[in-house]
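Q: Okay, next protein. This is DUF4145 domain-containing protein from Algoriphagus chordae. I've checked the sequence twice, so it should be correct. Can you predict the 3D structure?
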Amino acid sequence: MENSNQKLLEKINFLLVKGQNITQNYLGERYERYAPRILFSEFKTGSLSFISNVFGTDSDYYRQFKAATKGSFYYDIESAIGILNAIKTEIESGWLISFKKLVEADVFCDFLEMAEYLLEEKYKDPAAVMIGSVLEEHLRSLCLENSIPIFDESKEKQIPKKASRLNDDLAKNGVYNKLIQKSVTSWLDLRNNAAHGKYEEYNIDQVKLMYQGVSQFLSK
């Protein structure tokens, strides 16, 4: 948790430096000072990307920051910096990671218990889909904790990365090793077969192994 917080703090501090750099390079007169276009664009784009990856585009932080940076006057920049400082305080206190962990632990536990029940009742196909959904959400959470983007930016549209991309990115960034990456790949393949109706491509014993493997993966 401390390592995850540290990476988030490094990113937020980087963005705050960009914001402070704008305040030292305002253009215009005293009450009409505004940010240089390139500096403002880098600050706004980087900050919105960070906030959306950590909190989501529906969060108050994202909406407030986007509203604050509709303009580039000095008071817009000061509001934006204030929002980033609020986020920094939340990260420093450990509230962000600890709260997310508690919520995820409860949700994952519930879904895995449901998947276990389905396996006991010999419903291998919905069990595989459910376990795969838990796995994908965990990959997304690991990316957020390690400041790895979970969206591809296309103009102003955000496209969520596929689970396989998240898996590759986590391995490339050293969050886990190649052996775990291969296991995750095999679990995702099984989930995809179940989701696309290729039920003959796997059996219930493989789903049980997937359940055991994903459960252990989540507990690490």
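A: Here is a summary of the prediction. The radius of gyration is 21 Å. The chain has two domains: 2-92, 99-219.
Q: Noted. On to the next one.
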